[in-house]
Amino acid sequence: MIKQLTLFPTPIWLCFLQLDPDYKEQLLKDIYKQKTEGKDFRRSNEGGWQSENHLYKHQLYQKALEAITKVVQNVFRGPFLCDYRQLWAQINKKGDYNHLHCHGGNYDLTGCLYLKVPKGSGNIYFRDPRPG
After folding, report:
1. Positions of the chain with pLDDT under 70
2. pTM
3. Under 8 Å CB-to-CB from 74, ≥6 apart: which residues?
4. How far, in Å, CA of 83 to CA of 50, rounded?
């Protein structure tokens, strides 16, 4: 099921991907492995950890991207390809967050996929990205 939220003239689509639980575990295992082995990339995060931004090039993430592509094709009613330019993982602990930011520029769509959300976690908030 896909539900469009019309909070302001910039549309937001909410969808729950049905990823296989074993596949989600593989993704989580890879993400935590990257955290222990890799660098911490800073973007809009305050605390927490973020991976490199080109995970879309890794074979493991292709199944998730295919599922996301199907959602995008369903929303925009077209059999087209999605050109992924960035994909990164993030791990936040209690008190970590992302500053208000915008994903504008060269991107037509921006998405967020939660693989694991601990009980009592905060919510995601959206603001109209256009100046007042």
Report:
1. 7-8, 104-107, 129-130, 132
2. 0.83
3. 2
4. 22
